[in-house]
UniProtKB/TrEMBL annotation:
Annotated compartments: Cytoplasm, Cytoskeleton, Flagellum axoneme; Dynein axonemal particle
Gene assigned in the entry: WDR78
Record's keyword annotation contains Metal-binding: no
UniProt keyword annotations, A-Z: Cell projection, Cilium, Cytoplasm, Cytoskeleton, Flagellum, Repeat, WD repeat
UniProt-recorded name of the protein: Dynein axonemal intermediate chain 4
Domain of life: Eukaryota
Molecular function via GO: dynein heavy chain binding; dynein light chain binding
Organism: Eudyptes filholi
WD repeat intervals: 577-619, 620-654
Annotated Polar residues bias: 219-229
Region (Disordered): 193-229
Pfam families in UniProt: WD40
Higher taxonomy: Eukaryota, Metazoa, Chordata, Craniata, Vertebrata
């Protein structure tokens, strides 16, 4: 086809693609495209119109005919398809048509061939052979002329910046103490070495500066030979000295790590501690403090001061006698007056020392207990009472022979809340923790691992173990003597007995149930509905067994109630003492009047009870602070100590029931947490929230003659 305009010019569009007339390529043209568009019916009809491009001079003519045929047949296809669509019946539409889906050819976007081949594959033998040939080539390459080293320049890879977050680097300042003689020796050694080298180098020069006579020349040669022998001798001596120094270092290291040396250091440390703390320890044991006259000037000054004080006292007595004679006063009356003045001196707490070290600093003292057989051995538990301030706990055994460092240190994963020594096996220390677990340690062993642990027990506590005690009970009809039981009370509302076998297991003595508070009904007031309880069990806080009959015990709860319970009775509570408005932190039977007991609470009060009366006898409240601990004196039925957050108090019921006889205030930002009387001396131990156990001497506190209230 050709297209002409009005003026007769040929404006036929030229094709963009010019095919090569020498190649014969089958062409489907628009007919195949239209068949793809119109579906399978059109493709069957148009299959007979497929065209092939001819070759030779008639290519253009055939191309024009194919274009005409294509345009003509395209309209024909449309007409025929419309006719076919109109001829379709309902039966044809309902007829089942089967479609078959086949997998297309896979297109590989990324192909990374493997560098290893399985031994069982077909190419395994070929790969092994290639590897063997490569190994042979690498072996024969060194020294061979068939291989040439060649260098080439490659493109450097793009640099990449990579940042890694790490923990903060903590900087520490450290120093050491150096004496003046250490500095002098180090400086003197550094001065001697260059001086000796300089003298050795100047010796031949000085000899050679003389006139060169034959005799002097011979002397110079002899001096040079002597110098060479001296140098070799010095080298040998330095080598021998270095070897001796190494042997001495090895020998000294062996001495330092030997068991005998460690034992000697242990005894030496105790001797030094007893020398340092001798006046304090003598005051603790109520021994007279001895002074050595042949000591330093400081002690001499002290002795002189004592003599001067005695002289002043003697002069004062002499003056008083002269005044007596002048005033005609009877000497017996004056002596009685002096005794009265001595009795008027108020009692006080004199601080002796503190059990504290770097490990315990910052931990709160939760409990203290003396060893049952060694009155000089003290066990202290370190933990935290607040849930938000929990950290790892410690159980330390302190001795009076070394107040600066504990004898045994037991690291615990959780805060220690209670501990107690066994009576039947004094080397066993039971420890209760904040997570509810109980562990038993052997204080004779240097290993800090627990002998038994309740981690594998299925019935272990689920709350903090607030108190733990070994209790001796009569066997009764089962046998002679007494047996020892380990009892604990927890915040999960259970009082539990622990069975020590191959592992630590437990059985419940009692589950503390909540009791409704008895509220008096006002006149004209309607009855209130009972409040729904979140939990049927009340959290247990403390307990104490009766000193004479261990079948009975008291249990304090978080509700503020104190229950009297029995190990041989089916009833949960024998009696309930209601008087506190907050959690009861401690209950303690009087060791002399066994029908009386004390209780302290978070309601700022201490209450004295009689076991036959459910009404408080006396209530002591001297400060607006939690009372964490209370303990009776082991020497008097009238004296007890109490620790509240702000101060520690000593009460003497024979003197006053309104105010304590002694009060000792805590340091700023420090709270007292526990108290403990010494067994054989007039001393009191007080623990605080900073990990310090202070030892105080009770001075001028006269114990009453009677042990009954």
């Amino acid at each position: 086809l050709q297209v002409f305009d009005e003026e007769g010019k040929d404006v036929t569009p030229h094709p963009l693609f010019h095919s090569d007339p020498n190649t014969v390529v089958p062409r489907q043209g628009k007919l195949l495209a239209s068949s793809a568009y119109f579906g399978a019916t059109g493709s069957v009809f148009l299959s007979s119109f497929s065209m092939h491009q001819p070759s030779g001079a008639n290519a253009s003519l055939e191309q024009k005919r194919s274009c005409l045929l294509t345009s003509y047949n395209f309209s024909d296809v449309q007409v025929r398809q419309e006719e076919i669509k109109e001829e379709l019946t309902k039966a044809d539409l309902d007829r089942r048509v089967d479609l078959y889906l086949t997998e297309t050819e896979t297109i590989w976007m990324l192909d990374m061939p493997s560098v290893v081949v399985s031994v069982e594959s077909e190419d395994a033998a070929r790969v092994l052979e290639r590897n063997r040939i490569y190994v042979d080539i690498c072996t024969n390459r060194p020294g061979s002329d068939r291989f040439v080293e060649k260098m080439m320049q490659t493109v450097n890879g793009a640099a990449k910046n990579k940042e890694v977050q790490c923990d903060k680097i903590i900087m520490e300042d450290k120093g050491m103490m150096v004496t003046s003689w250490d500095l002098y020796d180090s400086f003197h050694v550094s001065e001697i070495e260059p001086t000796s080298k300089a003298e050795g180098s100047r010796t031949p020069t000085g000899k050679s500066s003389k006139p060169h006579t034959t005799k002097e020349h011979n002397q110079t040669m002899s001096v040079s030979s002597d110098r060479g022998s001296t140098t070799s001798t010095m080298i040998l001596e330095s080598a021998v000295l270095g070897r001796i120094h190494e042997e001495e270092e090895c020998h000294s290291e062996a001495i330092l790590t030997s068991e005998n040396f460690q034992q000697d250091l242990f005894f030496m440390e105790r001797i030094l501690m007893e020398n340092i703390f001798q006046p304090k320890l003598a005051a603790y044991r109520q021994f007279p403090v001895l002074t050595d006259p042949n000591v330093t000037s400081d002690t001499n000054g002290t002795v002189a001061a004592v003599k001067e004080a005695k002289q002043e006292k003697h002069d004062k007595e002499k003056k008083d006698k002269e005044e007596q004679k002048e005033a005609f006063i009877d000497p017996s009356i004056l002596s009685g007056l002096n005794k009265t003045l001595e009795e008027i001196v108020p009692p006080r707490l004199e601080r002796l020392w503190s059990y504290v070290c770097d490990l315990t600093n910052g931990h709160s003292v939760s409990s203290m207990v003396w060893s049952k057989v060694n009155p000089d051995l003290l066990a202290v538990g370190y933990g935290a009472f607040d849930f938000k301030e929990q950290k790892k706990g410690l159980a330390c055994c302190w001795s009076l022979k070394n107040p600066m460092w504990p004898e045994r240190i037991f690291q615990c994963e959780h805060g220690v809340t209670a501990l107690d020594f066994s009576m039947a096996s004094p080397n066993l220390l039971a420890v209760g923790m904040y997570n509810g677990s109980v562990a038993i340690y052997d204080v004779r062993s240097c290993n800090d691992a627990a002998l038994l642990d309740s981690s594998e027990s299925s019935n272990k506590h689920t709350g903090p173990v607030w108190q733990l005690r070994w209790v001796e009970q009569d066997r009764g009809a089962t046998g002679d003597g007494k047996k020892e039981r380990l009892i604990s009370i927890s915040a999960d509302g259970r009082i539990t007995e622990w069975l020590i076998q191959k592992r630590l297991d437990c059985t419940d003595l009692m589950k503390i149930k909540r009791t409704e508070s008895e509220k008096k009904k006002l006149p004209g007031e309607k009855e209130r509905k009972s409040e729904a309880l979140i939990s049927q069990q009340a959290a247990g806080m403390c307990f104490d067994f009766h000193p004479k009959d261990t079948n009975f015990y008291l249990a304090g709860t978080e509700e503020g109630h104190i229950h009297q319970c029995s190990c041989s009775c089916n009833e949960p509570f024998l009696k309930t003492y209601r008087g506190h408005k907050g959690p009861v932190y401690k209950v303690a039977w009087n060791p002399f009047s066994t029908d009386m007991f004390l209780s302290c609470s978070a309601d700022w009060s201490i209450i004295l009870w009689h076991q036959d009366s459910q009404t408080p006898i006396l209530t002591f409240s001297s400060a607006t602070a939690f009372v964490h601990d209370v303990m009776w004196s082991p020497k008097s039925a009238f004296i007890f100590a109490a620790a509240n957050e702000s101060r520690v108090e000593i009460w003497d019921l024979s003197v006053s029931t309104l105010n304590p006889v002694i009060s000792r205030f805590a340091n700023p930002r420090v709270k007292f947490t526990s108290v403990l009387f010494a067994k054989n001396t007039n001393c009191l131990l007080v623990g605080d929230s900073k990990g310090e156990v202070s030892v105080f001497e009770l001075q001028n506190l006269a114990a009453p003659n009677s042990n009954k209230v």
